[in-house]
Every structure is written in C-alpha cells, then in structure tokens.
Amino acid sequence: MGLLERLRKEWFILGIVLVIAVARLEPAVGVKGGPLKPEITITYIAVSAIFFNSGLSLKTEELTSALMHVKLHLFVQIFTLVFFPTAIWLFLQLLSITPINEWLLKGLQTVGCMPPPVSSAVILTKAVGGNEAAAIFNSAFGSFLVP
User: Fold this and answer.
1) How far is CA 82 from the centre of its chain?
2) The whole model's pTM is what?
3) pLDDT of 22 over the 80 cut
4) Which residue, 17, 21, 97, 118, is most buried by CB atoms nearer than 10 A?
5) Per-residue H/E/C for 69-119
6) Phi and psi (nearest 5°) for 145?
7) What one-character DSSP code corresponds to residue 43?
8) Do the Cβ atoms of 116 and 142 come closer than 8 Å?
9) What residues contact 14, with CB distance under 8 A and at least 6 apart?
C-alpha cells in the first residue's frame, strides 16, 4: 500500500491529529465566543450535520435490522455504562495512592462515567466499516439513559 493510498484510508485520524495540532498552535480560534463560535457550531450545526449525513446514508432496512439486535445493545450499554465506569473506578483507586492531583482523578472519574460522544461514535464506526445503524442507536440510547 502506497503512502498516498494509506493517507486516503486514514483521512479521519490524520484530520483529528491536524486539528489538534492547529488547536495547540492557535487555541484562541476555538474558544467560547471565538471566531468559530463552538457554542453554536459544535452544539447545533456539527452534531446535526453528522446525524443528518448518517441518516441519509442508512437504509430503512439497516436501521430496522440494527434495532432487532437486542443482545448487542445490552452488551454495548452494559459495557459503556457499567463495566467501563467500574474499571475506571478501580484504576482510580490505584492512582489515588500516588501523588497525582486529586482534581485530575475526579475529572477522570467524571469522564469515565459519561457515555461516548454521539458524533465520535458514529464517525469512528463508519470509518472502520462497522455497524453504523447500531452505533447510532446505541449512542442516542446511551445519551438518553444518562442524565
């Protein structure tokens, strides 16, 4: 596989790395109230565009079929909302005996209890050729389960 072909295949990951690098160099562009207005563009426009695009690319049969995979949905929800937070909690118990800042540990605990971001789950699932309909359902359902 040539370099150009590899870059085309890994465009999403490369894009993420590029955006992180640009944000590191010029963080003022993406701050709240900055030129990109992330409080509007991210919250409303980007997430809506991702769901709209995903919805257009899904066939009704795929979505219906994905809804019938009850065992898959149970596994994903239990893994995301029970197993992962428990594993993070156990890991934090080990880290609590180290000199790591207490607030960093509290932040990790908070992030460990949150469902994955809907847009990221859908985009990454699509990028690796996974079951996009199941990803959309589980992301949305998980977000409704967590207050």
Assistant:
1) 17
2) 0.60
3) yes
4) 118
5) CHHHHHHHHHHHHHHHHHHHHHHHHHHCCCCCCHHHHHHHHHHHCCCCCHH
6) -75, -30
7) I
8) yes
9) 7
What the block records as the tokens of 21 is: 């690098």
Higher pLDDT, residue 33 or 54: 33
Tell which residue, 56, 57, 34, 38, has the closest CA to residue 46: 38
| Per-residue pLDDT tens digits for 72-117 | 889 988 998 899 999 999 999 999 999 999 999 999 998 888 877 7
CA 79, 85, 88, 90 dihedral sign is negative
Which residues, in sequence order, are CB contacts of 56 under 8 Å at separation 6+?
none
Q: Give the type of residue at 77.
A: Q
Average pLDDT on 26-32 reads 87
How far apart CA 13 and CA 10 sit, in angstroms, is 6
Looking up tokens 């995301």 gives: 80
